[in-house]
Design goal:
219 residues; alpha/beta; 6-stranded parallel sheet
Length: 219
């Protein structure tokens, strides 16, 4: 605030906690290492986050891009998991740089909610275990019947997880295991989409469907 934004006494700044609460604060005093603030206005925002997306791990510079879009499109959770065709090994835990991407995006779009981030290591059994808290589990598979393109309102449910494979897709064994575990296999059309395209399509469709249910709140 002091060195980069050149904040001065009397300025009003916005702070948010990423969990639906933000406020306007007046800067009352400054030192070289601290800023004193006085609360002027506080807001609690309803949780409009919807779709959770699980993405097979990739070595990809586009990961930061999808994290930013997940904030703008009000994703509830982003899960990274290890797949047979994943490029490289998934980190043991969420990286600070990923959260920084979320915060930067939230500053730009004004969203007071940040998606939850999760890393799932191990086999697909681990992902299935994590998925059990969701009432609707969708497997986005390029080999699904093209006639299984869904009514996108299904993506806007209260507890939905959409699982997307890595750059190389799912192996037949992985897909069959997930279907046997209760996932519903769906198609996003005849084109084979990159993982980030599939994720953005699902998040965008879910976002627009939820806007329909919130008359007067859409921009």
């Amino acid at each position: 605030m002091i060195k980069v934004l050149r904040t001065r006494t009397g300025d009003v700044v916005r702070l948010f906690d990423g969990c639906g609460r933000d406020g306007l604060f007046k800067v009352t005093s400054l030192t070289r290492t601290s800023v004193a603030l006085e609360l002027e206005e506080e807001k609690i925002h309803p949780d409009h986050r919807g779709l959770s997306v699980a993405i097979g791990w990739n070595k990809s510079s586009r990961r930061g891009w999808i994290l930013e879009k997940a904030v703008e499109l009000e994703a509830r959770r982003i899960i990274f998991f290890q797949s047979e065709f994943s490029q490289g090994k998934i980190p043991a835990e969420v990286k600070d740089s990923w959260t920084e991407k979320l915060v930067t995006a939230a500053k730009q779009c004004g969203n007071s909610w940040l998606p939850e981030l999760m890393v799932v290591k191990g086999s697909m059994d681990s992902l299935v275990e994590v998925s059990e808290e969701y009432s609707d589990r969708l497997l986005l598979w390029e080999k699904a019947d093209n006639e299984s393109v869904p009514d996108f309102s299904v993506l806007a449910g209260e507890s939905v997880l959409a699982v997307i494979g890595p750059e190389g897709g799912f192996s037949s064994r992985e897909a069959e295991f997930m279907i046997e575990s209760g996932f519903r296999s769906i198609s996003l059309g005849k084109s084979i989409l990159r993982w980030e395209t599939a994720a953005l399509l699902c998040l965008g469709a879910a976002y627009l469907e939820r806007q329909k249910a919130m008359p007067g709140e859409s921009e």
